[in-house]
């Protein structure tokens, strides 16, 4: 996909036209409306990039609106972390940071207004209270092919409807006994247009408002009201809401009739909704319900487990905000549902880290090497990042005993094995040429120590006589290296689509080997890494100092992504 394809997508053209037609009153206003019932994931990140990105492109603003109209599963913990994650992704709502937060909204703060609008609809004969039971409801509603039937309460007079609605609000009825419906069209081919529910009874406390309400507005009613009252011009959401759009417009029309649309720059702001395809990712699930299940059943270590597709999980994994934004940009905005490769996201991460991550040496599966003829301590100087001179160099002590990775040694070398084996020479990265003599084994036949000698003329890494040494091995000085833990991650699910057998069976597709923990050694500087700091461990991958569990005496590093992959973006 080339740059111009993604940057001039249909949403951008749509907004461009409205700006040109003077419909925005001089300011494009969008919103990102997460429900605080979980942590945001990479799919939400996509919406964040679109909502905030479009506003920025047109010099407008994007509101952060917590869509907290469904009381059951919402919490402040979720709300606070949504804010944190959006900021981390690199976006800001107006007033964030200066304490004003004029661009931050809780939908629940509009409950009084929504209630007032509902009463207005009743008074105007555009809404009525209905007490059909669940079974009757299905029957009356019809099917896409078969028109619905009018509820027996459809023509109740406004006065009686008002009385019942107030009784609903006052807690006189049980959940489901009554609801408020819009009076639209029971024979509409669009089932969402057949007198949809606007308010339902739920005797559940709200995380902010407590017991104040026992009736709550439905999304289809609340959302256009929120958009309209906030002066939102362009309301972008995912494709499944396309069939709800006529209802969205119906509500906006009613608000217009009631004179409730906001004016800006002499223009009445009529919010409009458009839809784009969800972001789907292979080898993971994205529904907050399923992610919550993984957390509550202890199948992962919390919402921020680095295997999770959540923004906080990706942060803890070592992904960068820039790489996530780049990924969303590359995926583009489309009208067609598709699945994105997790490999593309990893590619974006690798691209960025290759440029920015400091190089370090770490040995994940250590075996000791003793350089029998080496005395004292020397210092090796290596670049922090060969691609970036300004990253300067670092000095690492080197002495008689070092750790190397077990996989860098073979007692009997295979063909084309250019690393360490008895009788062969290798370069110890940045230090010298080493010739292995023999390995010491335990009773079980495991190599416990490797011996050999160095060529004193080769300090710095090159042979004095110019002889060729093919293999270069990374190492950690045993005297000064720091013991460390490494967490290596694989896909959380083995199936490309874990939902292929239905969401009840998604756990069956979990990868039992998605986390592998190792203990080894890192060069001394890494003991003082800052939590969240990212590195390239030469030859083993990109790693991040774990933001929670890292301490200088017990460093923990998470592997963000391996060094190489055959994947290339289209
Ligand atoms: P989930 O199904 O994961 O619970 P949701 O759509 O119910 O997600 P909300 O908090 O209601 O989550 O979503 C906030 C915004 O993020 C909505 O505008 C929604 O359309 C958008 N969004 C959610 N998931 C995705 C996704 N996978 N791709 C793009 N946008 C998404
Ligand atoms: Mg939702």
Mean pLDDT over the residues: 94
What radius of gyration results from the CA coordinates? Answer: 31 Å
The CATH superfamily of the largest domain is: HUPs
Helix content: 25-40%
Largest sheet, in brief, is:
7 strands, mixed
The best one-word shape is elongated
SS content category: alpha/beta
Quickly name the level 1 CATH class of the largest domain: Alpha Beta
Give a verbal description of the structure.
- With 570 residues, the protein is of the alpha/beta class.
- It has three domains: 5-278, Rossmann fold; 288-358 and 484-562, Ribosomal Protein L25, Chain P (Beta Barrel); 368-474, Ribosomal Protein L25, Chain P (Beta Barrel).
- The chain has 13 helices and 29 strands.
- The strands form eight sheets. A seven-stranded mixed beta sheet has the order 14-27-28-29-25-26-15, with helices on one face. It has a seven-stranded mixed beta sheet with strand order 23-20-21-22-16-19-24, with no helix packed on it. It has a four-stranded antiparallel beta sheet with strand order 4-5-6-7.
- Helix 3 (42-57) packs across helix 12 (321-331) and helix 12 crosses helix 13.
- The relative contact order is 0.10.
- Adenosine-5'-triphosphate (ATP) binds at residues 33-35, 43-44, 46-47, 237-238, 278-279, 286-288.
- Adenosine-5'-triphosphate (ATP) is lined by residues 33-35, 43-44, 46-47, 237-238, 278-279, 286-288.
């Amino acid at each position: 996909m080339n740059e111009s394809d993604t940057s001039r997508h249909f949403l951008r053209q749509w907004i461009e036209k409205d700006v040109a037609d003077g419909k925005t009153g001089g300011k494009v206003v969008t919103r990102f409306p997460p429900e605080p019932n979980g942590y945001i994931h990479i799919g939400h990140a996509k919406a964040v990039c679109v909502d905030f990105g479009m506003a920025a492109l047109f010099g407008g603003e994007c509101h952060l609106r917590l869509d907290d109209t469904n009381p059951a599963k919402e919490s402040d913990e979720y709300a606070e972390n949504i804010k944190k994650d959006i900021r981390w992704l690199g976006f800001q709502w107006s007033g964030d940071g200066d304490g004003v937060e004029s661009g931050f909204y809780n939908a629940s703060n509009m409950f009084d207004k929504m209630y007032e609008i509902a009463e207005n609809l009743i008074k105007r004969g555009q809404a009525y209270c209905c007490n059909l039971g669940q079974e009757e409801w299905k029957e009356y509603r019809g099917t896409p092919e078969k028109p619905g039937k009018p509820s027996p309460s459809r023509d109740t007079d406004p006065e009686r409807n008002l009385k019942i609605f107030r009784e609903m609000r006052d807690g006189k009825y049980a959940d489901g006994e009554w609801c408020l419906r819009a009076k639209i069209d029971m024979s509409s081919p669009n089932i969402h247009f057949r007198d949809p529910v606007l308010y339902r009874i739920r005797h559940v406390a709200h995380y902010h408002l407590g017991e104040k309400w026992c009736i709550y507005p439905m999304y289809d009613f609340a959302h256009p009201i929120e958009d309209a009252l906030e002066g939102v011009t362009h309301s972008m959401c995912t494709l499944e809401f396309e069939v709800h759009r006529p209802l969205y417009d119906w509500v906006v029309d009613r608000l217009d009739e009631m004179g409730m649309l906001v004016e800006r720059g002499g223009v009445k702001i009529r919010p409009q909704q458009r839809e784009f395809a969800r972001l789907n990712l292979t080898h993971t699930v994205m529904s907050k319900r399923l992610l919550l299940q993984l957390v509550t059943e202890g199948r992962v270590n919390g919402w921020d487990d680095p295997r999770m597709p959540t923004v906080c999980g990706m942060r803890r994994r070592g992904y960068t905000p820039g790489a996530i934004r780049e990924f969303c940009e590359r995926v583009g905005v489309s009208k067609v549902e598709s699945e994105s490769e997790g490999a593309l996201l990893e590619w974006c991460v690798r691209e960025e880290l290759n440029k920015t991550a400091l190089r370090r040496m770490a040995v994940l599966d250590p075996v000791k090497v003793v350089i029998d003829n080496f005395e004292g301590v020397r210092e090796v100087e290596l670049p922090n990042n060969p691609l970036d001179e300004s990253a300067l160099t670092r000095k690492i002590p080197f002495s008689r005993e070092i750790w190397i990775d077990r996989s860098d040694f073979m007692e009997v070398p295979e063909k084309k094995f250019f690393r360490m084996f008895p009788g062969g020479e290798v370069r110890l990265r940045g230090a010298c040429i080493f010739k292995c003599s023999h390995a010491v084994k335990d009773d079980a036949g495991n190599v416990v120590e490797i011996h050999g000698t160095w060529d004193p003329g080769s300090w710095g890494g090159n042979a004095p006589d110019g002889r060729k040494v093919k293999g270069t091995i990374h190492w950690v000085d045993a005297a000064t290296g720091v013991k460390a833990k490494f967490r290596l991650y694989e896909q959380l699910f083995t199936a490309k689509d874990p939902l292929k057998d239905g969401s009840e069976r998604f756990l069956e597709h979990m990868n039992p080997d998605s986390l592998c923990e190792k203990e080894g050694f890192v060069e001394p500087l890494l003991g003082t890494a800052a939590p969240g700091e990212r590195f390239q461990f030469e030859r083993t991958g990109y790693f991040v100092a774990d933001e929670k569990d890292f301490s200088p005496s017990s460093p923990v590093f998470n592997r963000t992504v391996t060094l190489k992959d055959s994947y290339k973006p289209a």
